[in-house]
């Protein structure tokens, strides 16, 4: 009885929250200290009924919720949640499957197998690739680079799984100057050291320069262990590296090519946007995040490796107490044993949208970004500082002082959520369009709020 009552209460609250998103301020009403005070106190000596616990959680935490599913949330690159994926996520919790082994949950493993096949078909990647369902883009990069580390060291006669890195031949990693921070973090976790990477020059939009890549590769050992990291979707400009040329150059030098495509890899799904990622399928591994452009719930990173054996060698293990056969278990593709069954939500999103629906979703996000750039660019003294080719828009309001103050007041205002950043030495307001719910009206409402705040800031600072 308690369980049913709790679920009904949560359902009612969930429906009210989603229905209220269009008119809800995007910012939180409580600070972290307020939430901690509301939920805190000494550890209770005795338990509390589940229904009361949920009521206390709602009262204490809900005011601290940032409306990330809002159609006017444009901070970082955070997608919404498709209805089918939300339903699948609830079932994932109810079914409570451990997705580590084939034997532990045929349901979870089967859904992941189908979802992986659909993903490879949708993204036009090699059909024999292995797909690991990880927590997010960070761990997708880590997992792919673990496979890369294993493979490139094996080529020079070193088994890193058995011998570790002490005494191993050096691994040379080449990265673009504007790679995402999670690449550096993954290299730290893997013992490759982010500070040892060779930075390759990029153009004014953050795209790696093939001539600079070739020169950097030429300067290194001809037969060494080498990894090249490319990018599908610069975190500021949204730009894409020139994959066909860069991958060809890297492969001529015997390098493994990894592509960080956290939000931009989904451009492959659109016939109109596919030229942005021409040649990307020739890489050796790809990282992406389904919670971003595909709009499934957290957590849902995807690590894709063309040479499945390299991924399974880096991540897999056999133990006597496990029920295993000759087929690789799901945990052989991820850095976890026990984990959530993440494939249900990805399967549900792809099944609900289909190929044409994913293309429409991506194209819609790009269209909303272009609308932002067009309308904001018409405001006096406002500059769009990137070439808007995908879902990212970077805006300057003249001086850095004005830009930072507009960004600060916008977060307080609550009409829309956009994040301040610095790019090429300039203060900017960064807009990431990632939510399927966002409409033209949401863009227009957000632009109007920015214009009003801009006028107030200019008046106050004049």
TrEMBL record:
The keyword Protease does not apply. One of its GO terms (biological process) is carboxylic acid metabolic process. Gene3D superfamilies: Aspartate Aminotransferase, domain 1, Type I PLP-dependent aspartate aminotransferase-like (Major domain). Keywords: Decarboxylase, Lyase, Pyridoxal phosphate. GO terms for molecular function: aromatic-L-amino-acid decarboxylase activity; pyridoxal phosphate binding. The modification N6-(pyridoxal phosphate)lysine is found at residue 292. Its cofactor is pyridoxal 5'-phosphate. Belongs to the group II decarboxylase family. This is Putative pyridoxal phosphate-dependent decarboxylase. It comes from Microlunatus phosphovorus (strain ATCC 700054 / DSM 10555 / JCM 9379 / NBRC 101784 / NCIMB 13414 / VKM Ac-1990 / NM-1).
